[in-house]
Structures are given as structure tokens and as C-alpha cells.
Amino acid sequence: MSRLFLGLDSSTQSLSAVVIDYDSRKVVYNDSLNFDEALPHYNTRNGVLPNANPLIKHSPPLMWAEALDLVFAHMKKNGVALGKILAISGSGQQHGSVYLKANAAEVFSRLDPKTNLVKNLAGVFSRPTAPIWMDSSTSKECAEIRRALGGVKAAAELTGSDIFERFSGPQIRKFHKTEPARYQKTASIALVSSFMASLLAGKIAPIDHCDGSGMNLMDIRKKNWDAKAIKATAPGLKQKLPPLAAPWAVVGPVSSYFVKKYGLNPEAQTLVWSGDNPCSVIGLGLIDEHTAAISLGTSDTYFGSMSRCCVDTRGEGHVFSSPTGDYMTLICFKNGSLARERVRDEHHLDWNRFNRAITSTSPGNGGAIMLPWFEAEIVPRVNTPGIHRIDLDATDIAANCRAVVEAQMMSMRLHSQWMKAAPKRIRATGGASDNVAILQIMADVTGCPVCRVEVAKSAALGAALRAAHGWLKKSGAAADWKRVIAGFTEPVSAKEIKPNAKAHRVYDRLVEKYAKCERDNLPSRA
Ligand code: XUL
Hints:
By secondary structure, the protein is of the alpha/beta class. It has two domains: 4-279, ATPase, nucleotide binding domain (Nucleotidyltransferase, domain 5), CATH 3.30.420.40; 286-452 and 496-526, Nucleotidyltransferase, domain 5 (2-Layer Sandwich), CATH 3.30.420. Helices cover 37% and strands 19% of the residues. The strands form six sheets. Strands 1, 2, 3, 5, 11, 12 and 13 form a seven-stranded mixed beta sheet that branches. It has a six-stranded mixed beta sheet with strand order 16-17-15-14-20-21, sandwiched between helices. Helix 14 (337-346) runs antiparallel to helix 16 (397-415), helix 15 crosses helix 16 and helix 17 crosses helix 20 (501-521). The radius of gyration is 23 Å and the shape is globular.
């Protein structure tokens, strides 16, 4: 048997496709199309339209549709057995919103395969561009919605997150305030994920609970649109939102457009799409609350799962619904590699010497603490950058190398405590995850064994696995997540970095001092 499933990932800069053979547990196709390179006529830079206002970040939804045609054409040309694909799901950059006129449902249902998606979609958008997650132009609207909902804690309790500029609700409010005529003409608002699913299924697709959690409009516990949040956002919004659906819901068979044009099986099912972070959670194998992932990129991100919903009432971390039906969190620390590289460069080191410096010092650094806020920090919220050194000599190279990494790991430990779901193991991903010295500190601070997993294409892979899971569930077959992901999300090497018990005890004490240093130096106390 060779059951094939397709996962697509419509991200900020590219559209990727991953086909898995579920029975041989192999990725059999993997392709990516870069928007700037493949579709230069949209004039995007890294997938985003240039704007004189640096806070405004929009992208053209038509570009995403054209990319969908191109990716299917590539698959056909490359001999992918498209007729054998049983189900398709996808991942979309979270928060981005697409605005459709009343004719959209009709247009989606009659996509003409003799022409292309761009021509088919002429006249369906009530707003030609889509604000995406990088947009931060809605601070005023955030304050208005937050106030209407009763403050940070109330907003987080209700929607899973404080009100954030990039979230869809504040973006919709800004659209309604600044372009009321176009808002009036909008019959349906989609997310990037549900827009792409709508094209594939030939009808307006629901928004899944996971991506719906990134809108500040969904009750995170009841998983329905919340009347109070809708009222605080924009008039007449309820009628413009598609229904919400479970992350394994079937939208319907794939549209005849894709059957006729690319040879898909008319019985292939379109599964609801989800956000890129929820899909990555599956692609990284995080299916229970015992495993967390830490991505060490420009920024560091902590992903965790929770079986019960618990929100961060300080409004720093996000809670989303997870594709397993549980909950997941995303906590973003801006000063990740950015800070590590600044310390390395300040002392004219390469990574080898940086690591040797770390290993020449002891866990706990003799009580020396750094608050490495080279850039304004998201968690904890610090608007004015600044490096603070407590009991740390700025000229001591080795101590500074250890201090920046210890601070990052202690900050993650501290700022994920609200989840009340301490992990038992950690999967490390991202550029710096091949650095053993950093991973050892991660293991010692958290007290968890750490192993490395590949992050590349984790969202597209997660989408393909979600397609398999949804299809199995619909067919009445066993759709146990452990079995679904087996063989696809294993660590790069079986070698685990184990925590050192003595070092862990040192950090149990040091984290208290670190927390006090943070409190003493946070801007509100300064
Ligand atoms: C998450 C977020 C980003 C986008 C990127 O809240 O804004 O991770 O999903 O694609």
C-alpha cells in the first residue's frame, strides 16, 4: 500500500509542498517556490509589499493564489502521482486576513480550469492586499479592543492572548475605521489558511480552532466566536466570519479545477488548513505536554503543549488551540541568536572560541547575571533596549559568554511557568541547535534531556501529517497521533544531551536571583 498525503505551507516568503508516503513513512516530494523570485510582477520584498510606513506590512493574496497554480504545475511536471493523493491540508502564516466580496463563494465553486486562478479570482477581493503578521500599525485599535474587553488579563483569559497588533481582530478594526466603504463591501473575511483551503475545496472554508486562536476573536475555551470580542472589534463582523471547525475537519472533496487541470483524484479530500505554528507543532512531534520545543533562531521561540487551557495573564505568551485538540503555547524571545552573536562579536570570537569560553566556566557563573536586552524584548516586555550586568564584570569574556546563554535559558524557564506543564524532554531546532555548549545549558537549566530535530519544512510536514490524520479519522480508521507521526518527526540523532543534576540544582537557586534582577530592571520599576 502506498497512501499519499500532501501538505502545503503558504508562508511569508514562499509556498512549499511536501508529499508523504504514509505507509513507507517517507517524504517522497519536497518543493518550495519563493514569491519574490518566481512571481516578481507582484513587486514584493521577502513576500511583503514595500510601504513608506515601516509599521504597515501587507501582501497580495492574488500572489498566493498564483503560487498555488505554479506549485501544482511543478508537481505535475515532476511526475508526482497527484491522482494517488488521498487528502490535502495546509499551513498558513498566522494572523494574516483576506477580504472577500459577496461573489467569492460563487466564484470559488466555479473555478474554470481552462484559465488560471488569477483570472478566475478577478473581482473577488474587497481589499486588494492582506495585512500580515509583520504588521504593527494597529496599536490604537489594540488599546481600544483591550479596554472594551476589560484589560490584559481579561483579554488573555477570553481569547488566549492579550490583544496584539498583528492579530486579525485589531487588523479588522483598523480596516473598518480607515476604509469603511470597503469594509461594508466585504462579505467574508478569511485567514491565509482558510483562503487557500477555499481555493482548493471550491467553497468558503472554515477557520480551524488553532488559527482562529490568533485573531483575538475566539473564546479559547469554548472554541466559538465570542460576541463581546466581535462587538469590540467591528460592526457587522459576525456575518463576515466563516464558521470555526476542528483542526481535523474535512472541508470537502478537492475542487474540479484541480482535478481537471492537474489530475487530482476527484475523491481526494481537502482538510481544513491551520496556522504555521500549530502545523509545526505536529511537524516537530509535539503531541503531548511532556515534550516542548525550543527554536534557536534570530529570535528564540518556546513551543509547548498543554492538555488543559491555562493562559498567561500577564499577556506575554500566547495560547492557541493545538491540532491534537489540546492547547499549545508560543512564547517569543526577541533577543535570541541576535544577543548571542552580539556577545560573540563584541569579544571578537568565533563559535568554537565562544563555546570553549562557556565550558571554561562553571554552571551558575558564580552568581553573575546578564539581562541581554540588546533589542527591545517581547518577553519580558522591554521597550527600551539595554544590557544589564549584575555581579558580572563586562571585561570577563568567558563569564559574559556563559551569562548570555544562561540568561536566555533561565528566562525561558521563568516565563513558561504559567503553563503549569513543565516538560520532561526538549527538542531543540533552528540555526544554533547544533551548538552543544548551548544545548547543555538548556538541559541543565530546564532539567530536561535535549535532542535535536530538523525544523526545515516542519509546517508543511505537519500539514501533510494533519491531512493523513484527518483522512484516517474520516475513514473510521485508528488516527492515534503517536502512530500518525511515527517515523516522520524523529530527532536527527538518537544522542540526547542529559542534564547534570548538580548543575540543575545550581540553576534552581540562580533562577530566583535572575527573576529578582528582571523585576528590578524592568522599565516600570526603573
Ligand atoms: C505567530 C506569528 C508568526 C507567524 C509567522 O504568532 O506571528 O510566527 O505565524 O509565519
